[in-house]
Structures are given as C-alpha cells and as structure tokens.
Amino acid sequence: MSEILSRIGCPKDLQALSDAQLQQLAQEMRDELIRVLSIRPAHFASNLGVVELCLALHLTFDFSKDRLIWDTGHQIYPHKLITGRFENFHSIRTKGGLMGYPNPEESPYDLFMTGHAGCSVSTALGLKSGDELMGQGDRYSVAVVGDGALPSGVVFEALNNAGSLGRKFLVVLNDNQMSICPRVGALATCLDRARLTNLYQGSKRQLQKILSRLPLAAISPTRRSTRSATVSRPC
C-alpha cells in the first residue's frame, strides 16, 4: 500500500515529510517499481538504484525552475513517481501509456526525450548557457550520468566546456559498475581501482561513522520547511 507515495502530487510535497517518512517513501517507491515491473518487461535495476538519489535531488533543487537531465533516460522511473504520474504509472511502456524514458509531453519536469547515452552533460550545459543568455543565471543545471555513459566522447567534450563555466552547474556520477552490458575500457578500470583503494574505502567508512553520530539538523523538516518558504515551488 502506497500510503505516502499516493500523496505526492509534485516534488514540493517532499518538503513536508520527516526523515522517517522519506525512508518509508523510498521503500514504497521500490515496492511500486517491483509491482509494476513484475508484470511488464521494463527497466528494473537501474531504477531501483536511484530512488534515494532522485529524492535527494528533488529535495535539494527546485526543478520547476532548475534543470535536471538523466543519462541514460531509463533511470527516470522514480522521478516519474514523484512528479505527478503515480496514478498512471501502471501504464508505463504500454500503448498510450507513460513512456519508459523522459517525455516532455507527460510533465514539465521532463525536459528532453533522452534515451541512450551520453547526452546529459552537453544538454544540461546547453540549457545552462541558454538560461544565462536569457538573464536567468540563477537557475541550477544538473546532469546525472552513469559510469556506462561517462566514456562517451560527447561527455568529455561537455565536461571540458563546463570546466570553464564556473557557474551553477553540477554533474552527478552514478557509478553502479554497469551499462546496458558490463562496461569495459580504461575509464571503467580507473573507476574500479579508485573504488578499491584504501583511501576511498577508509574515507567512506570514516564519513559513515561521523554521519552516524551527527544530529540530522541538516535535513530536518524544519530546515526543509525554512528553505521551501523562501523558494517558490509550484507543482
């Protein structure tokens, strides 16, 4: 039963949830993904793996104004669940139903019909540049790129250009060690080696240890409510 998920009409509704409710929401989202995808062939693991990332992004940014591009686009199911499409989610990948990729005709939160692969950084960078030309430089632009899409030449070109931008532009690497098939190549090997280093593993354990001892003031309902009161978040 989707007790909380059914009440999320748009991302701004997340701001009113407590930390415990957000954890419950994440579980309800996974349950809904499993329920629907168990009766229909669709993208599965890639969506189960980005539930918390999706919630974190929508809690941090205002994507009714800011920009969000998923790469590849088949990671977008959790995003669809909290952007007003929960009631129709059962129709995904059926004739006349929701698309398994971003679709601007479904929601203003889907900016491009993106599929495979490597388009996110260049697209988000183009949107950011356009916003600045239009006098809307306060908009953030966020690209979520998987490690399978990262080696695309267009991604490196966009990163090269973005490095000189120095503005509100963010690239999130979703390193899940997988592409449409196991990814190969020098960059994949480099990421694997970095993940296995004592520095990375030790730093990760130390950070988890520190965070477990800290009060959750940074993501408390009061903090989120204060931010939402100062930022317009229309559905």
What can you tell me about this protein's structure?
The structure is a single chain. With 235 residues, the chain is mainly α. It has two domains: 5-179, Thiamin diphosphate (ThDP)-binding fold, Pyr/PP domains (Rossmann fold); 184-217. The chain has nine helices and three strands, in the order H-H-H-E-H-H-E-H-E-H-H-H. The chain has helices spanning 19-37, 45-48, 51-60, 77-81, 120-133, 153-162, 186-196, 198-213, 221-230; strands spanning 67-71, 141-146, 169-174. It has a three-stranded parallel β-sheet, covered by helices on one side. Strand 2 (141-146), helix 6 (153-162) and strand 3 (169-174) form a beta-alpha-beta unit. Helix 5 (120-133) runs parallel beside helix 6.
Summarize the structure.
The protein is mainly alpha-helical and 235 residues long.
Topology:
Elements: H1 19-37, H2 45-48, H3 51-60, E1 67-71, H4 77-81, H5 120-133, E2 141-146, H6 153-162, E3 169-174, H7 186-196, H8 198-213, H9 221-230
Parallel strand pairs: 1-2, 2-3
What descriptors fit this protein?
235 residues; mainly alpha; Rossmann fold; 2 domains; 3-stranded parallel sheet; 42% helix; 7% strand; globular
Poorly predicted residue ranges = 216-233
Average pLDDT taken over every residue: 82
Tell me the major beta sheet.
3 strands, parallel
Q: What proportion strand?
A: 5-15%
* Number of structurally distinct domains: 2
Regarding quaternary structure, what we see is single chain
Distance N terminus to C terminus? 24 Å
- Helical amount among residues, as a percent range? 40-55%
* Overall CATH architecture of the largest domain: 3-Layer(aba) Sandwich
Q: Would you tell me which CATH topology of the largest domain applies?
A: Rossmann fold
- Given the helix and strand composition, which structural class is it? mainly alpha
Shape: globular
Strands across the major sheet, in which order?
A: 1-2-3
Q: What's the level 1 CATH class of the largest domain?
A: Alpha Beta
